[in-house]
Design a protein that fits this description.
Elements: H1 26-60
């Protein structure tokens, strides 16, 4: 059996640690925050639905 990671060498991709400051548009930040909140709410609803279905399946036994 061959070693899959035999030739796997770590390479430094970023050598300069300095980053340029970027001015963000406050309106775009608000849209992004709203999108993330909606995504979190959807994930919560889907998780609750999945848990409810699991509980219903368990109660059927």
């Amino acid at each position: 059996m061959t070693d899959l990671f035999e030739d796997d060498n770590e390479e430094v991709l970023i050598t300069d640690e300095s980053f340029d400051d970027v001015a963000l548009d406050p309106e775009l930040v608000q849209v992004a925050d709203g999108t993330l909140d909606a995504r979190r709410r959807l994930e919560k609803v889907l998780e609750e639905r999945r848990l409810r279905e699991e509980l219903d399946d368990f109660m059927d036994y």
